[in-house]
Amino acid sequence: MSGTIEAPGGRLGRMISELAGWASPDLINLSHAILEMVDRRGSVKQPSLKQIKEAVAGVAGVSVDDLSSERRDRAVKRPRKVAMALCKHLTLAGYSRIGNAFGRDKANAIRACRQLDPLIALAARTVPPDATIGDWARAMLANYEHIVGAD
After folding, report:
1. Is residue 48 pLDDT above 80, yes or no?
2. Model pTM?
């Protein structure tokens, strides 16, 4: 699923330029990241849920099938939650679609994403602008217990 947004030189670009006068640095950085995601045709470039699952599984050392399985051990549960949160953060997918992609329901996706909001915020401040999905996953998994706590 991809949405369309006016290209950086258009109305969206002007709106973001106007933010510089009053917005927080975090909001301005987010705005620049959004502009970088928009290609010349105005289409948002976003990874697929499958690409995110594959990247997180590779970093965590579990199989993609494990992320959608019924397994609840920490070795699978943490990467699953990280992948769900990244799906919400990096795509336009809704909670129902994310939950379905992981064999879960909407409520599970909402809980996982909300629980990992502080972890997404930390990763957003620490990963470089050109970071891969794997970089995001590594940063989130490395700080999981410190930010989210033991599960």
Report:
1. yes
2. 0.72
| HEC readout, the chain | CCCECCCCCCHHHHHHHHHCCCCCHHHHHHHHHHHHHECCCCEECCCCHHHHHHHHHHHHCCCHHHHCCCCCCHHHHHHHHHHHHHHHHHCCCCHHHHHHHCCCCHHHHHHHHHHCHHHHHHHHHHCCCCCCHHHHHHHHHHHHHHHCCCC
- Structural domain for 34, as ranges: 1-45
* Tens-place pLDDT, residues 61-120: 999 999 999 999 999 999 999 999 999 999 889 999 999 999 999 999 999 999 999 999
What CATH number is associated with residue 113? 1.10.1750.10
